[in-house]
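Lecture 7 notes. Example A: sequence first, then its structure tokens.
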Amino acid sequence: MAAVEDARKALARPTLAMLPRVSDGLSFLFVDICRVVQTDTGVCAEIETDAGGVHRTPIPTASLACVLLGPGTSITTPALATFMRHGTTVVTSGAGGVLHYGSVPAPGRTTKWLDRQARAYADDERRMEIATRMYEMRFGEEVAEGTSIERLRALEGQRMKGLYRQLATKYRLKPFKRNYDPESWDEQNPVNKALSAGNAALYGVAHSVIAHLGCSPALGFVHSGKQHSFLFDIADLYKARTTVPLAFSLHASSSPEREARFKLRSDLKLYRMIPQMVRDVQILLDPDVDDIEVPSGPSSWRVVDLWDPLAGAVAGGVNYADHLVGEPR
């Protein structure tokens, strides 16, 4: 009888072949205002009830690729250890999962995507290919073969200027100039405030995706020189259809930063984009797998540099549409 029971336990024990893929079942789970604990039956999220008891909700650790712990959440060491054994990345995030404070990748996770990222980053030709694919993915148009990185920056600048003009006309605003000046933040217009708040949320979601895949946020292909270069690359792919339109819609708001964060959290627009972000990062790194004005002031305000194989690092936060003399507009 004991032998039969041992055999049943062995069959129930998960094997490598049984572990879920990223695309299978649940992938990302956001929890907040609870305590994540390990019980005799598994990992649970528990909260106190009005009657003074404790309500527990089981968490399917074996089916999770990434769990995001929001505000008001604590986790015990045994519960964290279970996530690590199941290969689940644990991320601490802001409300709604739209900010990233830190992450703990599972030690057993593959370095497949980090390897591909590092190899492409170290090869100027492949890096240029990925930078080109980012532009094509961002704006939905093909780029002529041999287009230089300078020309890509100019094309990106033209497209963003056009988008700003279009939205300014729609909301009957004066011509819009992107401006990020921490020293005079209170003097910024509502659109700039909402855009900065929305982009911060977008960076957080992109950071969570990059952490889950095991990629390095520092190895960017368009941006360079900062620990968050790659997440800026990825976040740029979605700004034109998420944070930019949202910011212009809040042009008359008295609390544009708060409303931008609230709308992104309440609608979970960015959170729902996570599966697409995962897929886009994978396609960028492996296409065969089934993307302003410089603020006046101290140079330390520059958030990140841009990669250039000839000129080296060039300033980020610059609209390069006017930097190519004689090029068609």
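Example B, a different protein, same format:
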Amino acid sequence: MSLVTIRNLTKAYQRGPEKVEVLHGIDLDIPDGDFVALMGPSGSGKTTLLNLIGGLDSPSGGEIDIEGQRIDRMSAGQLSQWRSDHVGFVFQFYNLMPTLSAQKNVELPLLLTKLSAAKRKRNAEIALELVGLKDRGKHRPNELSGGQQQRVAIARAIVSDPTLLICDEPTGDLDRQSAEEILALLQSLNRDHGKTIVMVTHDPKAADHANRTIHLDKGTLAAEGAALAH
């Protein structure tokens, strides 16, 4: 079953008097449980497409259907609630709160829910254990390595049990060993926990960890298949 169905998707920005078209008539299906890598040269539209799938931006035209919901028709307020309920985000630079412990960082998305403080704490502990940081809950970001900080960010992304994980260059700021560990973790979340993952990356080795690779070029889908990533 397709979790994400995109039809004739377009996106344009107004820069002064000039209208810049970033995406041109994208058609894409992402099955439930898939792990997709988006690749393409700088300016190809991959991050724009990722932001549209994650509900961080709205399209200029076309349809985005996720789990039977037309998110392209949602207001800003509806999109915000939908993201909170259905999507987890992982970014290149972790975006952790430096003054909070790992556990408190992971709890942040749960502050928008009706869960009790005790339940929030327990869910954060479970998420940290899932990413291999059971014993690091009280550490602040500056007491953790880059790879550990990204694990905290992933725990924060999954603590609300979202259907969809959106990852924008999740290994872009990591050394190769840490990157491999993060990619193995994402594979495990996909394979063992059924998370559907869409990941933007410029690294062919990172893309190899996905089930398939989709290539964008100048705002259109160029081709599909990991072989083209090299």
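Note on Example B: The two ends are 30 Å apart (CA to CA). Residues 226-230 have pLDDT under 50 and may be disordered.
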